[in-house]
Amino acid sequence: MENSIVLYGASGHCKVIMDSVFLQGDTVEAVLDDNPKKEHVFEIPVVKAENFKITKNTLLTISIGDNKVRKMISEKISAKFHKVIHPTAILSKHSSVGEGTVVMAGAIINPDSVIGKHCIINTGAVIDHDCNIGDYAHISPNASLAGDVKVGQGTHIGIGASVIQGVTIGKWAIVGAGAVVLKDVEDYAVVVGNPGRIIKYTEK
């Protein structure tokens, strides 16, 4: 059955999600944005969000890369949040993916991994067995998490980063591009380098 999806956020990230929606055989009804700077994304009209009636039955995916903004929007509107999974992504039947989460092309989610709500599992990311990814987290393109890794709410794992097995990364942390994480990371920490080291903390 074909679904008609509303996307919230007219960004470059929106384009990638829209491709996945079309490849799933679904359609996009409209793209919402709080401050529209364009009239269309591809052929789909961009509508000022306050002018579009969202109901509890609206199938909606938040197409914004910023983790804090996704959280804010998800908490202020009532809709039927829709997960979008690219057909080339590989998901174990023993894994689970929360509402509003997007899983991009070539991503792999292995058995007994649990992905929270409104996450981004980006292009080519690998999440091995028994991982737990908190709500609003972003696992960037080609990042790799070994088995039994825990990632807290809102954390951003940068492009090409690697996390060894059994590591716990706290909430709203940032792991920089290409970092290699060998030990646990505290909440709000910013980690860079190989081996990964904390260089500062984000604002709570």
TrEMBL record:
The keyword Acyltransferase applies. One of its GO terms (molecular function) is acyltransferase activity. It comes from the Bacteria. Residues 5-77 form the PglD N-terminal domain. Substrate binds at S11, G12, H13, G65. Gene3D superfamilies: 3.40.50.20, Hexapeptide repeat proteins. The active site is at H129. This is Acetyltransferase EpsM. It comes from Flavobacterium lindanitolerans. The lineage of its organism: Bacteria, Pseudomonadati, Bacteroidota, Flavobacteriia, Flavobacteriales.
